[in-house]
Amino acid sequence: MLERLAALDSERARQAEARRHDAAASANPLESTGAFQGAFDEQRKIVEESLSRIRQSGSASGKADMDAVAIQLAAMDKMVSDASYFLPPYDVQSSRSVVDRLKQSLESAIAEVIPKKKFSFRAKNTSSSPKETVTPPAVKNEEEEDETPSFMPDRAANLHSIRDAKNSTIVHDSGESSETEVTLSNLTHCTVFLRGIFRAMFFHKLKNCHVYVSAVTGSILLEEIDSCIFMLASHQIRIHSTTNTDFYLRVRSRPIVEHVSGVRFAPYAFHYQGIEDHLKAANLAEETGLWEKVDDFRWLRAAASPNWSILRPDQRVPLVDGTNVSSREFCNK
């Protein structure tokens, strides 16, 4: 599902770029303004209808729609950014207010229909890592008590959601299946290992977390991230509303950032026994060098964007070895 939505998001991006060129050549900018408003209102209605269905259906069928709405909202946010160069300032602010309101409505709907379920687990003690690699400890704030995550698997759609966790170590192995989709939401001081082959991922509201991901055949979307470290291998990566975060990437297309500050990039540095086979199966075995070819959709000038930078070699963490990390499935068997 997330892969299809990501494809729709990419298509919208292509159409937005085409509209931008058309608007630049148009003698009547108001015509482009009208076209934007029509498309934006159409997306708003779709999201509002989806939110209504989520509330009506409850947890029985609403879970499958929540991540779809989140991706639709990301597309609307990008739509506003793409049109901001020709829209009147009032229209830009008004449209962004609509997106913010819809995001709050989604959070409210999630709180209404999904009860928390607590699962407690602890990672096993691991053996020492090879000399040139490190096995990172869980990111933990000593002043806070542990709060284990709420796991919400949707077996029919192979969609797995983890939300509302603090000071936890979360490990999941997808194996050779490339149909698994993962959502992480509202995590603080957590360490997450996702090993295997995945279809798509969505990360929302993560703070002071370390996230290590192997092979994603589709896309990864990140929103509202603060002070984290990510090691990601994916065909497409889009980063929104993120601050003070380091990304170690292997990608098949240029990473896209928007509304970011203090983000830094470096080449992929995650390893575990068997990762080479997983990367090869996902067509991610070769280093493309695209990790440093970042497109900032909020910076249209010829000069380099001040919102992101390359992480210097002496500032990068060593290769992270996730081989011996204790594995615990978060889907029901």
UniProtKB/TrEMBL annotation:
Residues 137-299 form the C-CAP/cofactor C-like domain. Pfam families: TBCC, TBCC_N. GO terms for cellular component: cytoplasm. Its main location: cytoplasm. Gene3D superfamilies: 2.160.20.70, Tubulin Binding Cofactor C, N-terminal domain. Residues 9-23 have a biased composition (Basic and acidic residues). It is found in: Cytoplasm. GO terms for molecular function: tubulin binding. InterPro entries: C-CAP_CF_C-like, CAP/MinC_C, CARP_motif, TBCC, TBCC_N, TBCC_N_sf, Tubulin-bd_cofactor_C_dom. It comes from the Eukaryota. Residues 123-132 have a biased composition (Polar residues). Keywords: Acetylation, Chaperone, Cytoplasm. GO terms for biological process: post-chaperonin tubulin folding pathway; protein folding; tubulin complex assembly. Residues 1-34, 122-153 are annotated as: Disordered. PANTHER family: TUBULIN FOLDING COFACTOR C (PTHR15139), TUBULIN-SPECIFIC CHAPERONE C (PTHR15139:SF0). Belongs to the TBCC family. Supercomplex made of cofactors A to E. Cofactors A and D function by capturing and stabilizing tubulin in a quasi-native conformation. Cofactor E binds to the cofactor D-tubulin complex; interaction with cofactor C then causes the release of tubulin polypeptides that are committed to the native state. This is C-CAP/cofactor C-like domain-containing protein. It comes from Selaginella moellendorffii (Spikemoss). The lineage of its organism: Eukaryota, Viridiplantae, Streptophyta, Embryophyta, Tracheophyta.
